[in-house]
Design brief:
Blueprint lengths: L1 H4 L11 E5 L3 H12 L4 E5 L23 H12 L4 E5 L6 H10 L3 E4 L4 H14 L4 E6 L6 E6 L6 H5 L36 H20 L6 E5 L12
Parallel strand pairs: 1-2, 1-4, 2-3, 4-5
Antiparallel strand pairs: 5-6, 6-7
Length: about 240
C-alpha cells in the first residue's frame, strides 16, 4: 500500500490562488497539472472557443467542442475535483473588465499561456506598473523546437520588454515593443505560429515541466526574474537494459 500514499504536496498549496490567462493546449494542460498537485483556487481567463483543431493537444474532450475554453475547462476541473473553486473571465485580459477581475481575485501567481507575444508584453507592462504579484509567461515554438518559461517577480521590471528589445537574447526574442500598449492595436505575433505540427505528447511533457516549476514558485515566491528554455531534443535517452 505504500505506493498509494505517495509524496504529499505542500499544504500551503491548498490556499494558493492562480490566475491562468490562455486556456488553450498549453494552458489547459498546465491547469490540469496544477490541479493534480493541490492547487484548488483558479481564475481562468480566455475569450476563445474550443474547436476541433484543438483536440489533439488539449486536456478537454470532444463534448466540450464549441464552448468557451474557460467555461469548459472550469467544468472539467469541477467534475474531477469536487472541492475546487473556479472563476472564469471570458474577455480579453487587456480589457478593463478582465483586469478588474484579476485584481479582485488577488492571485498569488498569474500564468500567461496565450501564445501571443503582444498580449504577454502588455500584461507584463501592466503588472509592473500596477504592482501585480508574480507573473510567469510560457509558450512553445513551432515544431516544439523549444519551450519557454519566464518569471517576472512582484515589483520587478517589465522582463518581457527587456527581452523584446532591439538586441534581444541570441536573436530569439527580437520583436517589436509597444510604448503605450493600451492605445495601440497590437498585431505582432512574435515567434508564435498558427500551425504547430508537434505531437500532443511533446506538449504534455513540456506542460508537466512548467507545472513543476510553477509549484516551486508558489511554495517559494521568486525574488528575481528567471528565463528558462527547454529543448526536448536534449532529453536523456532511455537506458536499454535488454
Amino acid at each position: 500500500m505504500k505506493r498509494a500514499i505517495g509524496v504529499t504536496f505542500p499544504e500551503v498549496l491548498l490556499s494558493k490562488r492562480v490566475a491562468v490567462v490562455g486556456c488553450g493546449s498549453l494552458g489547459s494542460l498546465v491547469v490540469d497539472g496544477l490541479s493534480r498537485s493541490g492547487i484548488r483556487r483558479y481564475l481562468l481567463c480566455d475569450n476563445d472557443v474550443f474547436n476541433p483543431c484543438n483536440l489533439a493537444r488539449h486536456s478537454l474532450l470532444s463534448h466540450s467542442l464549441f464552448y468557451l475554453k474557460a467555461a469548459a475547462l472550469s467544468v472539467h476541473l469541477r467534475t474531477r475535483i469536487p472541492d475546487v473553486e473556479v472563476k472564469i473571465e471570458a474577455h480579453d485580459v487587456r480589457t478593463p473588465r478582465a483586469r478588474l477581475a484579476l485584481k479582485q481575485f488577488s492571485p498569488d501567481l498569474v500564468v500567461l499561456a496565450t501564445g501571443d507575444t503582444n498580449t504577454d508584453i502588455t500584461v507584463s507592462e501592466i503588472a509592473a506598473r500596477e504592482g501585480w504579484g508574480p507573473c510567469c509567461f510560457t509558450w512553445v515554438e513551432p515544431n516544439l523546437e523549444s519551450g519557454h518559461l519566464i518569471i517576472q517577480p512582484q515589483g520587478g521590471a517589465s522582463i518581457l520588454r527587456q527581452l523584446h528589445s532591439v538586441e534581444g537574447i541570441e536573436g530569439r526574442y527580437c520583436h517589436a515593443t509597444v510604448d503605450s500598449p493600451e492605445s495601440v492595436e497590437m498585431r505582432e505575433s512574435g515567434c508564435q505560429s498558427s500551425y504547430t505540427p508537434y505531437s500532443g505528447l511533446d506538449m504534455v511533457q513540456f506542460a508537466a515541466q512548467v507545472s513543476r516549476k510553477i509549484i516551486s514558485w508558489l511554495v517559494a515566491p521568486p525574488s528575481s526574474a528567471e528565463i528558462l528554455r527547454i529543448k526536448l531534443a536534449d532529453s536523456n535517452p532511455w537506458e536499454k537494459l535488454l
